[in-house]
Amino acid sequence: MLMPSGYYSGYGSAHHAHWVWHTKSHNCVTLSDAPQLLRSHDSRGAIIVPYEDDNLIYFQGNADPSYQTRAMRCRRHVIFLKSHHCFLLVDEFIAKPDVVSSLQWPVCILPIS
């Protein structure tokens, strides 16, 4: 469910350029249909606040620079509950004061051939 979708059909192919390069193909949030910065060195993320004990694993993904045109903060919190073998994802988003945006989880439906 959280792995990149699609397939790699070669660098620069139509599928590569129009799907693989886009935020939604990697199960990342979009902000009012706006993706992360495309093909930019400014678009980067980091894993911060990693934690593990006998019961859970937690980390926070910081993608603030990747959404800098629309958001002051865009982060994903991931919790893995070991005893239940389940994940909890919480997406955190704070819009820039002058930009109207809503957080969206991309729904990816790919045809089966």
How would you sum up this structure, described in words?
With 113 residues, the chain is mainly β. The chain has a domain at 31-104. Helices cover 6% and strands 35% of the residues. It is built from 1 helix and 6 strands; from the N terminus they run αββββββ. It has one helix at 14-20; strands at residues 30-31, 46-52, 56-62, 71-81, 86-95, 103-104. It has a 4-stranded antiparallel β-sheet, with no helix packed on it. Strand 2 (46-52) and strand 3 (56-62) form a beta hairpin. The longest helix is centred in the first third of the chain and has 7 residues, at 14-20. Mean pLDDT is 78; it is low at 109-113.
Secondary structure elements and pairings:
Blueprint: H1 14-20, E1 30-31, E2 46-52, E3 56-62, E4 71-81, E5 86-95, E6 103-104
List its traits:
single chain, 113 residues, mainly beta, 4-stranded antiparallel sheet, two-stranded antiparallel ribbon, disordered C terminus
Summarize the structure.
The chain has 113 residues and is mainly β. It contains one helix and six strands; from the N terminus they run αββββββ. The chain has a domain of 74 residues.
